[in-house]
Structure formats: C-alpha cells, structure tokens
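Entry 14. Two folds queued back to back today. First construct below, sequence then structure tokens.
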Amino acid sequence: MPPTVTAPELVAAVCFGLAVLHTFSTGLFARLAHSQPRHAGLWHLLGEVEVVFGFWAFVLFAALFWLTGQAAAVDYVEGRNFTEPLFVFVIMVIAASRPILVSVMQLVDSLAGLLPNARPVAVFFLCLGLVPLLGSVITEPAAMTLAALMLRDRFFSQGLSTRLKYAALGMLFVNISIGGTLTHFAAPPVLMVAGPWQWTTPFMFATFGWKAALAVMINASALSLLFRRELTAKGRGREAGGEPMPLTVAGIHMAFLVGVVVFAHHPVVFMGLFLFFLGYTTAYARHQSPLILREGLLVAFFLAGLVVLGGLQQWWLQPLLTGIEPTALFFLATGLTAITDNAALTYLASLVQGVSDEFKYAIVAGAVTGGGLSIIANAPNPAGIAILKVGFEEQAVSPLKLLVAALAPTSVAALAFLLL
C-alpha cells in the first residue's frame, strides 16, 4: 500500500467498488422483493439504480464521520461541486415538458416524412441519430431526455423484443456520449477540460465533432436497417393527434431551456429560472403534462452520490492516467469509463500538468467512447434509465446486457476516433 494513501481514501475506494457491484446486482434486489414481501419496500429501494450511488455516498459520509469527526466529514461534502447534478435535474425536467417534447416530435415527424424508409423506421433512426447530435446544442442531458421519451412512447411501449430494447438503449447511450462533442459546452467530460485546455467549439468540431457525427449516423443507420421489419410492424410512426401547442407557449419553454443552458455553470441563476418555470407551468397548466420531478430528483441523487464518492478516488485513478502511450491510454480511458463517470476521468486529467496534445485527445476520446458501456459511465445515462426502464421486465435494466448491447456502437465510435 502506498504510504500516502489515507484511511478515508481507502474507505472511499471500497465504498466506490461496492457501489459499482451494487449497480450490477439490482436484479437480485428485485427478486428479493418478491421472495421477502415483508421487506419489499427496502428491497425495491435498493433495487433502484438511481439510488445506488446516493446510498453508498451516505455510507461513506458515516465512515468519514467516524474516522475524521463531524467537522471534517461535513467540510468534505460541502467542498464538493454539485452544480452538475442540479443542472441535470433542471434541464431534464424542462426538456421533458410537454411543449418542448411536442415541438421536437413535430420536427422529427416532419423530417421522417422526407426519408425513404417506412415512417416508424425513419422516426427510430432520427431518435438515435439526430437527437443525440442536438445534444451538442441543448446539452446531453436534454437530448437524452427527449430521445428517451420518444423511444418510450413510440417504441418501448409497443411491445418490442427485449433484444431490440437493449440494442436501442446501448446505442442511445453511446450516441449521446459522443454526440455532445460537436461543441465545447454540452458534454460533461468536455466541460471538465475545455477551460483549462482552452478548447473552443471550432476546435471541438474539427478534432472530435465530425468524427462523432459520422459514427452516430453509422450506428443509427445500421440498427434501423437491422430491425426494420420489427420497427415497421410494432413502432408508432406518428404521434396521435391532440390539442395543438400554441407557438407562444412552446417559445417560452424554449426560452427557459436556453436560459438554463447559457447559465449552466451558475446554479443560483438556473435554479432561479427553474423556480420561475415551475410557476409558469402552474399558471398555464392546460398546456402541460405532469413534470418528471421524481425521475429528475432520482437522477440528481445518483449523480450527487457519484460526486461524493468520486472525490476521493484520485489517489488510484491519476497514476493510471499518466505515463501511458496515447493509444493504450485511449483504451484504458474507455474501459475505466465503464466503472467511473467519464467527467471524473477528464477532470483528473485536467489537473495533470505538462501533458501532450496526444494525451489530451486520447483521454477525452476514450472517455466519450466508453460513455455507453454502463449506467454510471456518462452523466445523462441515469436519466435515460429512469425514463426507459418501464419497458423492461421488473422495471430493471441488466448492466451486463447493457454492456453487451453497447459494444458494437462503442467499437464504431472507437474506430472513428482512432482511424479518422
């Protein structure tokens, strides 16, 4: 054991490892809820993927309280930056509001009518191809929310095969992760390094963006063609008619969304906008559907737990990221992303001084490439799980099946970043 490793760091590493194992065991807790109905509530709670990291963050806090005392434990938690969990919660709720969802669905429907495929196939392709790329503008969490809601309502709720559901979920996670790299402000792992490394939107598009866009389109096209018969037979190609959405209401919702994106680094401002948004939706309730507050809070709880647990992992992560040849670093970053948040990896990389441009490219490309391999790999993934898990048995997503489903689109992304 290195002499510089402290007891809190060791405990944090153990808690982090147990949290990762817990994410792969949610199905077990779901079965326990059936076999032990007396404690079904507890088992269902522990079987919620979004609860896992928050639960183990509380375990870590209790351990720190015992090891270092109240003041030190509280200082550590208060010293963490919870801007990202707050932002994901706010952007997820606003992006899922009915006026914005209807507007995006109308855009998808209009574009689907221009494509030569059957309408359900065209809509499916746009959900996995166009919407992830919109994440570079409206942010990845917002794109994830919109794509997941459309997939849920038009495909997952229509009796698709489990194989197609996992394939779509794995590809959605991968495409969202790489689809946010066309700009410097939309993807969490890019945000961690854009300032310290002075990366701009033109640089991101020239270095990462066009490669990511090509990979996203290849992935979406391949899956749409492979399952075109099932999609045509079961998918819903057009949204059922309803009360038309006034342009003014849709515009105001878009303005709230843009305002939150612009002030993404300033929680005091975007939380104020969010409270104003809640008041507006109450005042004009006839144009609204229930806001996904519960789902958003669960996702924020998950990410906040990741922030608390991840803050004490630098002692073993940073040595892994230094002194490695760029190609090997790319694959290491891709693999590590599956068990850590990719933004945490790039944040640690931004702290290393005097690194080469090849190091910077490898660590970021690897981090976004591996963003679909697990639920914790990319910040928006829990949002997708929260929305789409209703389409799976026991409302539980198997981490192993998700990993397998994400391997093919991840390989396409890897080839794009390594060879182009």
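Second construct, same run, same settings:
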Amino acid sequence: MTKSKPYIVAEMSGNHNGSLDRALQLVDAAADAGADAIKIQTYTADTMTVDVKHPRFQISKGHDLWGGDYLYQLFERAHTPWDWHEPIFERARERGITPFSSPFDRTAVELLEKLDAPMYKIASSEITDLPLIRLCASTGKPIIISTGMATLKEISAAVEAAKGAGATDITVLSCTASYPAPPEETNLRRIPVLADALGLPIGLSDHTLGIGVPIAAVAFGAVLIEKHVTLDRADGGVDSAFSLEPAELAALVVESERAWQALGTTRIGPTEAERESLRFRRSLYVVTDVVAGEPVTAENVRSIRPTGGLDPDQIGTVMGRVFRTDAAKGTPLTWDLI
C-alpha cells in the first residue's frame, strides 16, 4: 500500500471551448470536487505542426472524435491561449489546487517557468522528444511522463534522459493513447510491471469513460490518476466525449481514496473492526427450558447466534446425552451441563 492516497489531476485540455471564463469555471469545478491539481497544455498550432492540408497531416476519417480534421486546425481549436495561463494559475492557487501544464516546446517551458509552474508533464506523443524531456528536467522540478504507445525501451530512454538532466522526482503514467480508450486495451496489469522495471512510482493517465478503470488502477498500485474534465459533456468540446463532469470527478476523488484505504495488508485473520462480529458467530445453545435428566434433543439444543456455547460441530456428540442440571432457554451449552 502506498503511503498517500492517489493524487488526482483534472485535465482541462481543450474543454474550455475557447472561453477563458469557462476555463476558470473548470478550475473552480476541479477544486470543488476535491482534485489535487488542474492541468492544462501549453502550445499553439504553430509550435505543434504546420498548416499543410496533406493526408499525412490529417487524422484518419474513421476516428471517433476528430475524423478528417487536419492537425493545425485541431490544435487551433483546442489550444489554451498563452495569455490565459496566468489567470488560470492564479485562480487555481486562490482555490488551493495545484496548477501545472504539459509543455510541447522550449517556448512553452520558458512561459511556464515565468509562472513558477511546480512540475511538468510530458505527453505521450512527446515521450521520444528527449531534448524536451531534458529541458523540463533541467528545471529541477518533478517530472510526470505519460507512456501511451511507448515500448519499455522508449520509456526507459525517457526516464534516463530526465535523470541525466537532473530530475530526481519522476512519476511514470501508464496510458492508452486512444480517445476514448477501450477498457479492454487499458492493461492495468502493466502498472506493477512498470513499477518493478523502473523502480519509480506509477500512475494512470486514463481516457476511458467513467471512473471504473482508475478505481481499479489503485488496486494495482497507481499513485496518481489523471482524467479529463468538462463542465457538461452535452456542451461539446474537443475532449468532452471521454471527460468527467464535476460530479463524476468528485466521485473519483472519494472512491479512489476509498480504494486506496481498502488495500490494507496481506494479513489473513480477523481485523479490529470485526471484533464485535466475532461475538455473533454460531454456537450451541439451550433453546427451551430443560430440567435435570432430560435428554438433549434437536428441539432443546440448536446452533444459534451468538458465541458462548460449544462449537456447532459438536452437535452430533451431545445429542442423546442428558442434562445434569436445570437450564433456562438462552443458556450456552457447555460440557458441565451434560
């Protein structure tokens, strides 16, 4: 069992729908739900790609959410304007929630450093951008690395790049980089495998629907859960289809902590909380008033709750014996009575 409850990160992504007011409302919603952090993404369409309408820059037309979109236009729609970063960070800090971001190039890191970003998240698609990882690590701040699509070799290379540049606080997130992600391809069993292979804390960046998958991840040792959030899925937005609404985020906060508490230990046996219940196991009792010399029968001795009498398995041994003394209904049957 990890020492702390899972750290819950609410991912805003492009669910501000182009409105700073909505972005600030998302910060408030995350804080109200009890999330530990709110994460945004720091890029522009021009820092991500080029405006070329060629099939190699186009998302496959069969994609569930963004089919046929060109990368440049998608990033234009989804990006968080850089002049919004400061008010978003300020609102988060006012509300007692940690703001941070995924940077996608050097200029993004420079902006986030000016805002004193407390940590950096490397997005799955950037895990092979080792210069970016080294740049983030060189700040000396905690690094979170998402691993969607990555092989163990690529993950190890990213971790080593971060360590080599000075990172001492690294968390790796198991991730399936499809949107939404099918639960059956989430492969939570790799969480302890990654922990053993890397010797690092492992979390989950989750794109499945609902909260069932991240709750299950806690049982496999996930120390951090990242989920996309929106104010209302019905309002639309680039990631709204697989995002949590505020009430669902609040449920994730509560239930992930409950799952963590439930991990307990490997000890088998009664717990302190079961002490009272132990009293109400069955045992043999006199169930009608009897007098000395009366035989023990199925009518006057039965296995009932609570404890105090002979074990129920002694019923065959005591049948047919006789009572030595009178006994009232509700008397535990003990060897000195028969």
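Quick look at the second one. The chain is about 30% helix and 15% strand. The beta strands are 7-11, 37-42, 98-103, 120-122, 143-146, 170-175, 202-206, 224-228, 283-286, 301-304.
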